[in-house]
Amino acid sequence: ILEIPSKTRSEMHSVLEKYFGYTSFRPNQEEVIASILAGKDVFVLMPTGGGKSLCYQIPALMMKGTAIVVSPLISLMKDQVDGLLAAGIPTAYLNSTLSDSESAEVRNRLMKGDLKILYMAPERLMMSGTLSLLKKANISLFAIDEAHCVSEWGHDFRPEYRKLSELRSLFPDVGMVALTATATERVRKDIVSVLHLKDPVIKISSFNRPNLSYQIVEKKDPNEQIISYLKKNRGKSGIIYCQSRESVERLADRLNKAGFSALPYHAGLSDDRRSKNQEKFIRDDVDVIVATVAFGMGIDKPDVRFVIHYDLPKNLESYYQETGRGGRDGLECECILFFNRGDWHKIRFFIEKKPSKKERDLAFQQLSQIMNYCESTECRRNALLRYFGENLTEPCNNCDSCISPREKFDGTKQAQMLIRCVSETGQKFGISHVIDVLYGARTKKVKESRHDRLEIHGLGKSVSKDEWKRIGNELIQSGCLSVSGERYPIVKMNEKSRKILAGTLSVELTEPLISKISKTNTNPA
Length: 525
Ligand code: ADP
Ligand code: ZN
Hints:
17 strands; hydrolase activity; helicase; 24 helices; 525 residues; 3'-5' DNA helicase activity; binds zinc ion; alpha/beta; binds adenosine-5'-diphosphate; DNA binding; hydrolase; seven-stranded parallel sheet; globular
């Protein structure tokens, strides 16, 4: 096990924040980066989306000279490079899409030591002209991306990658890191041997944290729900994440009044206050820290036994990160997320106010991913891991979906109503509009499209709008309705919808979330 000197660690963190805007490393990133900086050869297996790029980009930024990144797809190089340039990192690529004068310019900058990172395809790298150029330049590191391409046993063998086999002896003193998302044991060994990695540090990441149990509970009276939870878990260490500073303060206060030891943590406190509160939590002087997402960077408290999300996290990424602060010692940690649709409306409202369309689109997309996660009946762990490109084949038996699967009810009538409404509004609208019509709303859009004159208008009034949304989502997820459309998702009928409407197919729907926690709070201890 590599000891990371604290100076290196803090430099790594500041590079992470300064150039990439992230506050904490993903599993294994830190170890990989430190090993590269220590001059080792490294083999990295991480699921897609696991953050392999940072594993070589950060050392590239911290080392003298230029890192050479080998990447198979010329089409992706430009995107990578553009991204790095936008972050202020001097980067370029060498490939056949460049004109002679453009390549000459890149070579020039390499020789002058102007580039931190240079991308190229393997065939370009192994050309004798390129090799002799690199010999004269100052190379910090070779990063071989999609390293499984060297192996004939893999699914994506590329003969050009085989030639990389000579690299190790041509540059005996330059560290090499091989990265891939897909490698069986056999391919892994093949990569190490073809590339002649020297006594490599091998890092294999799964994002699975089996000792974390994931639960989503309906948020009803969250303060009381939390208090009743704490009563049953006295003396355990835990983090409660809230969205705003005000709610952090309010909840911490409320918990103290109820006789629990809790401290607040958010960016509005003085540096001094913040570090004192954090210190007290780490030293076990206080059980609970109530915090905004500002809390957590560099926190390495091993025995956090619960992580509660009072509010909906921004996205699945942050959710994984924040819950990941629990159970570092490998022992059990309960991760509880309070969820209701009201929060969703609140977040939508904030997103609408963002000035840039690109940011809004991203935020809406992330919000809908986390909504689907919450409303899904799938194993939570499987769903979360799938987001990071990993596939568990078995349900985990350690999440609310696995342990207490939600009840089902015959939702054929509701499904028929909703599908009929899709049909009568002409299959030209998103689910929100369809539900507005069904619910009997008189929005501008409803009036303009004269959908308030349809017979179906208002027919679904006895069910709440949120419940209709939930039903709509479930029908879409189970393929009873289709969604299409480039810019706006439009709901359409399909084979299944028609059968349901014709009464030849019945539909089972899931009951809304009923939490174990909220049940217990009706008879407070
Ligand atoms: P991979 O190459 O493993 O598929 P990437 O390097 O493209 O994954 O990273 C996937 C996404 O995760 C990118 O958007 C990247 O910016 C983000 N990411 C990587 N590391 C971190 C981190 N430490 N914190 C937050 N996001 C990260
Ligand atoms: Zn599960």
